[in-house]
Write a structure and sequence with these properties.
Blueprint lengths: L3 E4 L2 E4 L6 H8 L3 E4 L12 H10 L4 E3 L9 H13 L4 E4 L4 H11 L5 H9 L9 H7 L10 E8 L3 H13 L5 E4 L4 E3 L4 H5 L9 E3 H4 L5 E3 L3 E5 L4 E4 L4 E9 L4 E2 L7 H4 L5 E2 L7 H10 L3 E7 L9 H15 L6 E7 L11 H10 L3 E4 L1 E7 L4 E8 L2 E8 L2 E3 L4 E2 L2 H4 L25 E3 L12 H19 L6 E2 L4 E8 L2 E7 L21 H17 L12 E2 L4 H6 L12
Parallel strand pairs: 2-5, 3-4, 3-5, 6-7, 6-13, 7-10, 13-24, 15-22, 16-17, 16-22, 17-18
Antiparallel strand pairs: 1-2, 8-9, 11-12, 12-13, 14-23, 19-20, 20-21, 25-28, 26-27
Helix pairs in contact: 3-4, 7-15, 11-12
Protein name: Sulfide:quinone oxidoreductase
InterPro entries: BLH_phosphatase-like (IPR005939), FAD/NAD-bd_sf (IPR036188), FAD/NAD-binding_dom (IPR023753), Prot-tyrosine_phosphatase-like (IPR029021), Sulphide_quinone_reductase (IPR015904)
Cofactor: FAD
Length: 575
């Protein structure tokens, strides 16, 4: 819990959980204020749950939710009234604490000087300097607005895509002024969560402080983006301040939609319901696997697109391998319920996977989509497609591993940069936005029809970096992305089917097939997944070491220049 004492009677904090309320009480908090609307992220506790915890501890609770970037005078007045009514210390929280700190500063502005407010907030890590004009205006001193800070490149998202792109940009031009907008304090190696759920990795191995992975020389803006103003080349932050850019990189990730399955959120982490798609739950998968001696274990896969299309069945194979080694495979009935019509989207790898489906005696259910979970009753409901019709089927379970439906983030769905669904709409080769020539996208949130994997990002980041450098110089974009993606399918502990492919499902191995034939399970591929890939992630991608990832460059000819759409040249941006 990250409590920051801005004033003796006011503390701010990033998102808290119900169990944190007792910790806050122990430290002396006397009231709690929530400044975050429900539903901003998939791992966000409900306001009602935190209110109940506060009331159980005898603390007054106020909900004054403020949308990122939209702090109005009514919000400030409501916050000021709450501070006047409540006995301090008051603990206020939002996603990062910056909205709460901003509200405090604006509420105190009529009585405190701007210097005092900025010093108090800045002393605990909240930089409210861009608010100075508004703070001073509240005292009647000035009415001018501060100009937006401007950078060569602004990157929205501090995940694998954002960090790798920043490193690749600085490799090409160390003088670039780059800012990364990212509210999280931790960075996660998400490909490792499957191995956590399989009892191979410790969860702590997959997390590092964000400060450790930020490239040297990059400005970390520790808040969230709230909106965009492309007509001004600006990003609007959640406290209402703005960042200007010459080039914008969008790597927002995607949204894990736990609420799309009725009853799922209420039972996650209990009643035998788990998911390797959540950092906190992957150890529960291994706990359930070890504890299950008989009964039914169901593993689900939602409609595409999803992060790493092989991850849902990886969880199943690792659990099934454990039950096989323990002599329980005949007592555990395993089902794989896939909303799609095939086991895996690249046909070359299906024969090897089907051998393991038969080995583990898995009932393979295609066109079966999870729609509801009753945790206490341990029952899952599936919509089963039969031709053009669907019918509902209830299935009891003893263990249920859920892969949630996935969609674009709310930020991108509401932005001018998303396609009809909300994916960042990019040219599939250059990764430049199809309408805004100074905007690029990569990672899980972009519209390119590649597999959404860390391996894809490793190839995409150098392409984006190369093309941004060219665009800033007014040159033609020459770097192209071929759709490369990789999915190391862990079919048993110690063996992997290493799927590597390009756009269209064309098989494209990185290593000679005599060394690793990805169409067959391999021990060497397992060593690559377990030992090499985590090291490559932290020390290769994030350090701009582009081993086997150097971008393909088109020849510098007029013909190559003309082959790209108009906006690809970087010479124009549609409005």
């Amino acid at each position: 819990m990250d409590i920051r004492r801005i004033a003796p009677d006011f503390w701010a904090s990033p998102q808290i959980a119900p169990e944190d309320v007792g910790v806050a009480v122990a430290q002396g908090a006397r009231a709690i204020v929530c400044n975050r609307p429900d539903g901003e992220s998939e791992d966000q506790p409900a306001t009602a749950a935190i209110r109940a915890a506060a009331e159980a501890h005898g603390l007054p609770f106020r909900a004054i939710p403020v949308k990122p970037g939209q702090i109005g005078e009514q919000d400030v007045a409501a916050f000021r009234a709450a501070l006047d009514e409540l006995e301090g210390p008051v603990l206020a929280f939002c996603r990062t604490g910056s909205r709460s700190a901003t509200l405090w500063g604006l509420a105190k502005a009529p009585r405190l000087s701007a210097d005092a407010i900025l010093q108090a907030a800045g002393g605990v890590g909240y930089d409210l300097a861009p608010l100075r004009p508004r703070l001073e205006a509240s005292r009647g001193d000035v009415i001018a607005l501060a100009p937006a800070a401007r950078h060569d490149v602004v990157i929205v998202g501090g995940g694998a895509g954002g960090i790798s792109t920043a490193a690749s940009l600085l490799k090409r031009n160390p003088k670039l002024d780059i800012a990364i907008v990212e509210p999280r304090a931790e960075h996660y190696y998400q490909p490792g969560w499957t191995l956590v759920g399989g009892g191979v990795f410790n969860r702590a191995e997959t997390m590092r402080p964000m400060a450790e992975v930020m490239p040297a020389g990059v400005k970390w803006v520790r808040t969230a983006a709230a909106a965009f103003a492309p007509e001004k080349s600006q990003v609007v932050l959640e406290d209402g301040t703005r960042l200007g850019y010459r080039a914008l990189v969008l790597s927002p990730g995607l949204h894990l939609d736990w609420d799309a399955i009725d009853g799922l959120r209420e039972t996650l982490g209990a009643n035998g319901v788990t998911s390797n798609y959540m950092f906190d739950l992957a150890p529960y998968t291994w706990e359930l696997t070890q504890g299950l001696r008989s009964g039914r274990a169901i593993f689900t896969q939602p409609p595409m697109p999803i992060k790493c299309a092989g991850a849902p069945q990886k969880a199943m194979y690792l659990s099934a391998d454990h039950w096989t080694r323990e002599g329980r495979i005949g007592d555990v009935q395993i089902e794989f319920c896939n909303a799609g019509g095939v086991l895996f989207g690249v046909a070359d790898y299906v024969p090897a996977l089907m051998e393991y489906i038969r080995k583990y005696e898995v009932r393979l259910g295609l066109n079966e989509r999870l729609v509801a979970v009753d945790g206490p009753a341990r029952t899952a409901t599936f919509a089963v497609k039969d031709g053009d019709a669907e019918h509902m089927v209830e299935k009891p379970f003893d263990m249920l591993h859920v892969t949630p439906p996935q969609r674009p983030t709310d930020l991108m769905r509401a932005s001018p940069f998303g396609d009809a669904a909300g994916w960042v709409e990019v040219n599939h080769q250059t990764l430049q936005h199809v309408r805004y020539g100074d905007v690029f996208g990569l990672g899980d949130g972009c519209s390119a029809p590649n597999a959404k994997t860390a391996a894809a990002v490793r190839k995409q980041a150098p392409v984006v970096a190369e093309n941004i450098v060219a665009m800033l110089k007014g040159e033609a974009l020459r770097a192209v992305y071929d759709g490369y993606g990789s999915c190391p399918l862990t079919v048993e502990r110690g063996r992997i089917v290493l799927a590597e492919f390009l756009y269209g499902g064309k098989v494209q191995p990185s290593l000679p097939t005599w060394l690793i034939d990805g169409r067959r399970p391999s021990r060497l591929a397992w060593l690559l997944k377990e030992r090499m890939l985590p090291w490559l992630y932290w020390n290769g991608m994030f350090k701009a070491r582009e081993w086997l990832a150097r971008p393909t460059l088109l020849p510098m000819t007029p013909k190559a220049h003309e082959a790209l759409p108009a906006c690809e040249t970087g010479a124009a941006r549609a409005s």
